[in-house]
Amino acid sequence: MDLFEQAGTKDSQSRSPLAERMRPQSLQEFVGQEHLTGPGRFLRRAIEADQVPSLILWGPPGTGKTTLAKIIANATGAHFTSVSAVMVGVKDIREIIAAAQERWNLHRQRSILFIDEIHRFNKAQQDALLPHVERGTVTLIGATTENPSFEVNSALLSRTRVLTLRALEEDELVKVLERALADSRGLGGAVQADPDALEFLAHSAGGDARKALTALEVAAQQGGRVTKSAAEEAVQQRTLLYDKSGEEHYNVISAFIKSMRGSDPDAALYWMVRMLEAGEDPLFILRRMVIFASEDIGNADPRALGVAVDALNAFELVGLPEGTLPMTQAVTYLAMAPKSNTVLTSYTSARAAVTENGPLPVPMHLRQAPTPLMKSLGYGAGYQYPHNFEGSYVPEDYLPDALRGSRFYDPSQTGFERELSERVMKLRQQVQSASSKDSEAHPSTPSVGRRKPT
After folding, report:
1. Please, which residues have CB within 8 angstroms of residue 242's CB and are 6 or more apart in sequence?
2. CB-based burial of residue 285 (10 Å sphere; 0-12 exposed, 13-18 middle, 19+ buried)?
3. Kindly report the CA angle at 244 between 239 and 249, in degrees rounded to 5?
4. What's the chain look like in SS3?
5. How far apart are CA 362 and CA 399, in angstroms?
């Protein structure tokens, strides 16, 4: 490197963002992830023993995935190649592997291939990488904010070790900010910051060191001292961690549903607002509420389904921001309604009978008889029209012969279903009594093949 190149490199470094300039160079500088890098922990032991296996680093943004990969390369003397999964193809991978193999043949130097956003690698790219990871031509370090079990194929996962990184604690972020203020690579003591300003920046960053450092750099551009007011101006509005196509999406909607199921209106409301503020489609949330009203409440409170559907219709009518009001009304109602999953279990039980028994014939007395021929064959014979009887009811079994006596609907003792339970029990007893009298009057009637009540 000549003098002009050296000057260009220094100038480039000085223009780099604060977060990049403050990137730790060793484990001693690294903050957080003590469960991996603390004394005696797996990653520290692997680095110190120079026996780092292929890894998948899974964690939120700004938690140190790229930094750890570079620290590993520095500590082990390995050649470091960094690529983004969205920028490389199979051809690029083959070239990287060929260079790594030549590097080992000529200099016995190992190679680390760092792939950012490895969850975006398609199957062909992952398959192209697999044999070289298995042979150790490269040590793979993949970084992802998404659950790797969803996006990385099982063959590649089996040849790597997944390490989970957590969001940084606020006190850890304060430590990162204090170092950036003092370190010559950062602000070098030229700017001071009030403790409450640092606490605010740490709190606003949501566990993301890069976000905290970027906000500090913006606040420091005003010169003088970084106050809480300057920090608030720099942050403006925090972006919530919520990837609508990733794992956090499923985590938050799961928390929302489980909070309603657990009859906790406060938590259900919190998770609903969390999704709305992060940009989730309100109609997606409302559709989940409609499903919930049947699946988890059902006839324990038949009004719940109407409340959910009305909220959906009301939102479509008024939109945002006023549409959040019927949503709030509905979610609190659903959370406090009596719970029953009888709708789900009843459907599952009936479906099992259909699947197990196939298309059983419709009993003759229930068949339609629109033609004289069908009437002559007995279609509809013996059908009793309920409205011709007192209370518009006549004891009758409407199931196929092979399933007579089967029970699919078993109401709970919760809410309105308690009343339904008493009613259906009385009706079934009348059917059973009528069936017994019919059997006594016709003792030759075969009962073989009839399914016992469940």
Report:
1. 248, 249, 252, 274, 275, 278, 279, 280
2. buried
3. 95
4. CCHHHHHHHHHHHHHCCHHHHCCCCCCCCCCCCHHHHCCCCHHHHHHHCCCCCCEEEECCCCCCHHHHHHHHHHHHCCEEEEEECCCCCHHHHHHHHHHHHHHHHHHCCCEEEEEECHHHCCHHHHHHHHHHHHHCCCEEEEEECCCHHHHCCHHHHCCCEEEECCCCCHHHHHHHHHHHHHCCCCCCCCCEECHHHHHHHHHHCCCCHHHHHHHHHHHHCCCCEECHHHHHHHHCCCCCCCCCCCHHHHHHHHHHHHHHHCCCHHHHHHHHHHHHHCCCCHHHHHHHHHHHHHHHHHHHCCHHHHHHHHHHHHHHHHCCCCCHHHHHHHHHHHHHCCCCCHHHHHHHHHHHHHHHHCCCCCCHHHCCCCCHHHHHCCCCCCCCCHHHCHHHCCCCCCCCHHHCCCCCCCCCCCCCHHHHHHHHHHHHHHHHHHHHHHHHHCCCCCCCCCCCCC
5. 8
Task: Please report, for residues 77, 139, 235, the alpha-carbon distance to residue 219 in angstroms, rounded to integers and kept in the order given.
Answer: 37, 40, 8
- pTM for this one? 0.62
pLDDT in tens, 434-450: 777 666 655 544 433 33
pLDDT at position 51: 92
Interval 41-88: pLDDT, tens:
999 999 999 999 999 999 988 999 999 999 999 999 999 999 988 888
Phi, psi of 27 (to 5 degrees): -65, -30
- The pLDDT of residue 64 is 93
- Name the residue among 269, 258, 186 with its Cα closest to residue 220: 186
Contact call for residues 74 and 25 (beta carbons, < 8 A): yes
The pLDDT of residue 67 is: 95
Query: Would strands 79-84 and 55-58 be described as parallel, antiparallel, or unpaired?
Result: unpaired
Distances (CA, A) of 352 to 319, 349, 357, 444, 453: 41, 5, 8, 31, 14
How far apart CA 139 and CA 104 sit, in angstroms, is: 12
Give the pLDDT confidence of 239-273 residue by residue, as tens digits. Answer: 555 555 566 778 889 999 999 999 999 999 999 99
